[in-house]
Amino acid sequence: MAGASLLEDLLEEEQGDMTDWNLPVAFVKKRHSEKIEGSKAVTQSWRMKDRMKTVSVALVLCLNVGVDPPDVVKTTPCARLECWIDPLSMSPQKALESIGANLQKQYENWQPRARYKQSLDPTVDEVKKLCTSLRRNAKEERVLFHYNGHGVPRPTVNGEIWVFNKNYTQYIPLSIYDLQTWMGSPSIFVYDCSNAGIIVKSFKQFALQREQELEVAAINPNHPLAQMPLPPSMKNCIQLAACEATELLPMNPDLPADLFTSCLTTPIKIALRWFCMQRSAKLVPGVTLDLIEKIPGRLNDRRTPLGELNWIFTAITDTIAWNVLPRDLFQKLFRQDLLVASLFRNFLLAERIMRSYNCTPVSSPRLPPTYMHAMWQAWDLAVDICLSQLPTIIEEGTAFRHSPFFAEQLTAFQVWLTMGVENRNPPEQLPIVLQVLLSQVHRLRALDLLGRFLDLGPWAVSLALSVGIFPYVLKLLQSSARELRPLLVFIWAKILAVDSSCQADLVKDNGHKYFLSVLADPYMPAEHRTMAAFILAVIVNNYNTGQEACLQGNLIAICLEQLNDPHPLLRQWVAICLGRIWQNFDAARWCGVRDIAHEKLYSLLSDPIPEVRCSAVFALGTFVGNSAERTDHSTTIDHNVAMMLAQLINDGSPVVRKELVVAFSHLVIQYESNFCTVALQFMEEEKNYPLPSPASVIEPGNFTPVRDGPATPRLRSVSSYGNIRAATSVRNLNKSLQNLNLNEETGGSNPFSPGYLSTSSSASSTLGSPDNDEYILSFETIDKMRRVSSYSSLNSLIGVSFNSVYTQIWRVLLHLAADPFPEVSDLAMKVLNNTAYKATVNARPQRILDSTNLTQSAPASPTSKGTHIHQVGGSPPIPSTSSSSLTNDVSKQTGPRDISAVPRPGAGATGGPQYTPHSHQFSRTRKMFDKGPDQTVEDSEDGVGHKSFMSTTMQTGFCDWSAKYFAQPVMKIPEEHDVESLVRKEREWRFLRNGRVRKRAGWIIEKDDGAIRVWKNFADLEKNPEMVTAWQGLSDMLPTTRGAGMVVDWEQETGLLMTSGDVRIIRIWDTDRETKVQDIPTGADSCVTSLSCDSTRSLIVSGLGDGSVRIYDRRMAPSECRVMTYREHAAWVVKTYLQKSPEGNIITVSVNGDVRFFDPRMPESVNVIQTVKGLTALDFHPQANLYACGSMNQFIAVYNASGDVISNIKYYDGFMGQRIGAISCLAFHPYWPHLAVGSNDYYMSIYSAEKRIR
């Protein structure tokens, strides 16, 4: 709490000034901080792949009623009851048959559909016949073998149990090995006899012996064992034994003789009887053994006392097992087979009861001890509460009061959810919540708590699924109760966000109809309809059956009705849902066409929320990407959609632009031949439309060689891209170029040639390509194509001819390939190169060879050996073969052989004939497939293996990333609002550190090509700088002999970014929405050199290259927003500064050194201060009334507000310090008296008013 008190003290000192604390933080949305990809698929183990049934049961009773075995000395009196029948109360044969019948009934309570066979006092042959018969009928399912050996000797250490001979004169041993052979696998064995643990040990030894025999037979086919039938594996066998190998069964006369069997088959009856035998039972007056036989109700009716006790017992034993057992063992024993699960739940009771009589039941697989688990106390309490009501219920007929057990357990679960830290053990009540879903009384509360638990994260969903929640919540979808709808929608959204494979289960059970009704219900809150839209989007995702079912359920019309809902997340998921239902499903697409779905989606392309725009692009992309045959009508629709999407070329969000590339890739695949034709046109026209080389004519307004850094050199155009929607004539459309140069020598080149500036192929390059050398079209080639398309008269026509749509989209892709965000440009490069590759492979060589520049192509010899071509200084190489032989050679190739005409990546020369011309306009520094000049293609077959750049399923991962929202906690307090969170503590620390300035800033870099890039971690020594976002701030930069490039100003209070420069507008971007807010015309023919804004007054001040200073009020219409123009400066305005206060002045300075102070309300300056001539940089201190000037004449002057020189800096510190260089930039610290200076001699200096301590 020390941090909190410090914060309060500081706020008191600053008189409660919370302005800075409440400032919005920009570029911190999840789309900025996370990689746009889905969660890593986690294999879900909850779904039992090998679910089984116990279909056959062998009941083997060796009782020999009336004759005790010789090796057991029984007490007097002794336990007599077998299956709750006293065998001495009737004739031996009748007793045996009654006991057998009773045992079968007891098992049938747990598995009524199994096939039961009794074998009473059998011989070895009878047991063999029984077991082999049951196994034959059961096939691969499970068989149960129940053995009661109370009338025969104890098992032997040799692995034998006892049966009888035909005359009952002898006990005959039966080997467990033989029993294994007859029973096979999978099987479950129950042994109710003394020393039963011996059988378990012998069984394991024989099973191991069988495994060894199997291994021997597999290794040596000649071994005698290999000639015999293979013995069955015993791996899937389960055993339950009444006691350890050295223990005798209890003989207490108050207990049944088959106590173990009673626990397994009649658990409630024996549990109540055992409870009454405990001392604590005396605390419950009036309860006797006779009374508990009269408990009213049925086991399967939860509303009756007996049924409720059975329900509670099931919940408690399930909970104990889930909390104690390893997850995989719990799944195998308690979720795989209903009968096995029941027997093991009852086995936990057997362990508790029999241990109290010094008997330890044994199981294989062995379970951890559970008899002391705390949940048994809850059972004792439930029994106590029930039995205490018995006397009055039976004698007076009073109503039964239901147990508070489930309500109390839900409260315990709620306490776990409410209290404690996140990283802790899971709640032990989770299986009880599952049981409570069966109760209508507690169902609403249970679903609410379950939803809160699932909201904790994917781990909670996986836990709930492993407990077995799935069939319960699936069944509840049949409920018509409206109050359950929000809860079930929330729970299913959580489940599907973690395990989308449940889509098939939902459709199979018609569960999709439930969510269709929720989505169509206008009275449902938007957040619940959003979850329903997400669920339906999962149901139709790459699942044709789901698509068909939802199409019949009218999903498209329901979604279209809600496209303009005020809730942005609903708009996003409705659009994604539409995109997925018609993805590769033509019936849904035509349904969308009939409902003009594509036109209704257009409105979302200008949505203020980037994620909504992105989802609309996704939906339209899959709409045009359908693989069905096209009619003229559908082609027209595709063209319209394409041109609408093209408007997003300069969208402020890279997420949207990435999805835009993928949408266009669908279109390119759909109309591949058309785009290949366009690609060839662009390739052919390049040599006929040369551009001036930037090496010979470097004009700042046209080409600006810029380096992003050592790893990311780029050549970028500053010329206008033009109106992307404008069309042009066919003749002008062909005025574009391509530079497909496949055989060039890496070597000396003019340092300003495009090749020189694009030599990077590292993963960190601007293109983001793993290996740019594999591209047919290099970046500089695409950049030239983009520039030429700008030079062509592209904006001369208003209408759009469909013949030019493919050309327009190709131009859009060229522009996106030069996108400032690496992932966008990389995707676009893949699309362009894939098309270029296919175009060059499939083209007829004569079409290209008709070119006038044929002599400059460099075909290889007709042999499979490639010829090395060397190009120096742009001079054409000498052809090694005639054009006629080349043409004939190429035309002979058919089918896949054509691919060999394009070299595979890594080839230094072409394998087979090469027919594609290359340019000689520039001396290039890199071959497109540059792996060294000395490599040759030894075998032309290798050329067939060219890498495909683009798969037909190109994706951005946006939809899967969006789905992560539902997998993560949505009820949790956001970290920025949680006072205990790390994010909040960090922010408090920064607030305390900086006083009134938060300095965890992003670094905005604007470039002269109009691109804006935002970086983070740039000052963190422990982290690498990361690009947060990037976009084209200005797309219409004008060529000029002296340009300002691009200038920006940032408004923290509103998150607005003002941009201008060599343009005739001031463009305002909303960085929160990543959209352009407005364009303000400057009204001048000169470039904007400086910007300054004030959010409180909505004013923008711009300084211009012609010396004018213009003030704009952005609240007014564009034609009226220029409210003042000052023309007092006679030269280029270096800096404008608008003081941030209601009465703040405007301070401006020009290169002539005249500093002028303006009051926005006055038509003339209120003060003028003359400083130095040749001014190149200036900055104002926002707090200290100081300003510093930097001059090209190599000095810095610091002035106060009155114009007095405070300091002159001409030399660097130190003895004989050298003269500083011409000043290029300077900046004050926002609060400290520190000045940072950059100069043309590559020095950066920081000066302070405080004396430096040496």
From TrEMBL:
The keyword Repeat applies. Residues 741-769, 854-922 are annotated as: Disordered. Keywords: Repeat, WD repeat. Residues 753-769 have a biased composition (Low complexity). Residues 51-204 form the Raptor N-terminal CASPase-like domain. Transmembrane segments: none annotated. It comes from the Eukaryota. GO terms for molecular function: protein-macromolecule adaptor activity. Residues 854-866 have a biased composition (Polar residues). GO terms for biological process: cellular response to amino acid stimulus; cellular response to starvation; positive regulation of cell growth; regulation of autophagy; TORC1 signaling. One of its GO terms (cellular component) is TORC1 complex. InterPro entries: ARM-like (IPR011989), ARM-type_fold (IPR016024), HEAT (IPR000357), Raptor (IPR004083), Raptor_N (IPR029347), WD40/YVTN_repeat-like_dom_sf (IPR015943), WD40_repeat_dom_sf (IPR036322), WD40_rpt (IPR001680). The keyword Repeat applies. Belongs to the WD repeat RAPTOR family. PANTHER family: REGULATORY-ASSOCIATED PROTEIN OF MTOR. This is Raptor N-terminal CASPase-like domain-containing protein.
